[in-house]
Amino acid sequence: MPPSSPSRLALPVASYVVLLVSALQTLVVPVVTNIQADLGVSATAASWVVTGNLLAAAVLTPMLGRLGDLRGRRPVMLGVLIVVLLGSILAATTSTLPLLIVARVMQAASFGLFPLAIGVLREELPPQRLTGAMAIVSGMLAVGAGIGLTVTGLVMQHGGDYHRLFWLATALTVIGVAGVVGLPRRAAVATGRIDWIGGGLLGLGLVLLIMPLEEGNSWGWGSARVIGCLIAAVVVLAVFVLAERRISDPLVSTRMLTHRPLVIANAAGLFLGFSMFAVFLAVSYFVQTPPALTGYGFGSTVLAASVVYLLPGSIAGIVTAPLGGRLVARFGPKTTLVIAALVAFAGFGLLTFLHAATWEIIVGAFAVNTAVMFGYAAMPALLIANVSPAETGIANSVNSISRSVGMSLGTAFVVTMATRNLIPGAPVALPRESQYVTVFAVGAILALAAAALVALALPQNRPTHLSTLEVEEEEVFGAAGLAVPDDLVAKENAARA
């Protein structure tokens, strides 16, 4: 029997909302310096429009996915889109930084649309269409990033008002609401509760951890505020771990924090998130730096920074994702992760020593983004090999949190380096070239350390014996922080038996 009309909407609606997630994420990054100038705030303060968004996403994404299971995907998606819509309107109408940060935190709810969209596909599509549909939806992450960067460049090409980007986000979100309204109503698929306590403790602990890392240059690294925040972060995160041990449906299973292969997998997820945003933000800042004042950079417009330098990295996600699936199918997740780390090492290494020509920046960023895609392909298979079938959902959820925390740390690190060792006498605060060299060098060192850690500390995994499409299906579930279907888990475990 052919699918009903509402079911036919599942794939286009899921594709659109996932594209929206990625577009909202990339709209802001190239204009952080514009926001800083327009609002008259420091670079550190302006960076919280990115950092606050990522920290909120780390907590909200798994919680919203779980809420969709408990309350139904359609109503939760509508609720998320309404929150994002209100956040976009607030961002478009405010000219104060605190309210803009609040708006970006509200927009962070959009990250939850990815696991919700995958859940809709599983509910509405027959098995024979599901794998291909999820590959399309996963590809929308890269497509949305590319569209977000391109549109940002076009809107801002003549030094336009950044508020227009948020009005655009408002219009895009309205379209998403209209699409989700057309989806069929389905019953909830799970029982239980949301770990609100764990989410609150994790969010507070991460803010207390990231804030002193970003504000250390202005507060003073030995100041009472920095030390106090770090101590408070340790205390709150320790309470979080203790609380998770006593909760029946925890946000994070404590086994995921103590079992060595899972610790390494989550450390790798942390590195992937760090790499993605470190290169994203550093390249954006670097290429917009005026060479007449600093002796480095390209003085690029927002359009050039977005389309010439950042867009190729997003295209890497479309081009190299299938190759990552083939590597996992052929060599297994451990070897693929080592390859990913070495490719990241090559990309960061190139940027460390060569960043005076356009092609050098593009190739280096492309390599790092390729490494991230390879890592995303390997992670679900690695987790499946080290958890029981019933634990794949929580394992992917924890890994999703690790990646988001890594993104926040990458952002904080770049901002910290870009706001110290400033060039004296410059009309605006501009760091010396050595600060960016340090960012790229640290990325290279971390990549090499990740390669060594995975190679030496993880047990050898055999090839998965899954098809490339099946590996890509695993990757989508992993990226969404969802449980991998039982048939894929059984097939992979049988191959390793």
UniProtKB/TrEMBL annotation:
- What keywords appear on the UniProt entry? Cell membrane, Membrane, Transmembrane, Transmembrane helix, Transport
Known InterPro entries for this protein? MFS, MFS_dom, MFS_trans_sf
Q: Which residues form the Major facilitator superfamily (MFS) profile domain?
A: 10-462
TM annotation in the entry: 9-33, 45-64, 76-93, 133-153, 165-184, 196-213, 219-242, 263-286, 298-323, 335-355, 361-384, 405-423, 435-458
Q: How does it sit in the membrane?
A: Multi-pass membrane protein
| Keyword Hydrolase annotated | no
Q: What is this protein called?
A: MFS transporter
Q: Which organism is it from?
A: Paractinoplanes toevensis
Q: What is the lineage of its organism?
A: Bacteria, Bacillati, Actinomycetota, Actinomycetes, Micromonosporales
